[in-house]
Amino acid sequence: MFRVLDVDAAVPTAPLDPATVLAGAPAAGSRALAAVSGVEVGVWEMSPGTATDVEVDEVFVVLSGSGTVTFEDGERVDLAPGTVVRLRSGEHTTWVVHETLRKIYVA
């Protein structure tokens, strides 16, 4: 049986830890949609602002919004609907969100 995952479902967000915020007052949150063979599929959202993060193993596809993610080695990826990105556990990143960013992730 096929089931449709509701990628438009509301995502509960909360202000980010002030120690990670570099600009603005971004809030973020996620909502798990399914678990497949021990892998989580969900939706994540972040409002405008700039924040740092330490990543988990993940692949994601941007559903809406815009921004950039910069990796500690200097690589920068522009984020827009349809962009696919691979994150690796332990990577340090900086997220700059211009328009509320919404992604579906597999982690």
UniProtKB/TrEMBL annotation:
Residues 39-105 form the (S)-ureidoglycine aminohydrolase cupin domain. Gene3D superfamilies: Jelly Rolls. InterPro entries: RmlC-like_jellyroll, RmlC_Cupin_sf, UGlyAH_Cupin_dom. Signal peptide: none annotated. It comes from the Bacteria. This is Cupin domain-containing protein. It comes from Nocardioides zeicaulis.
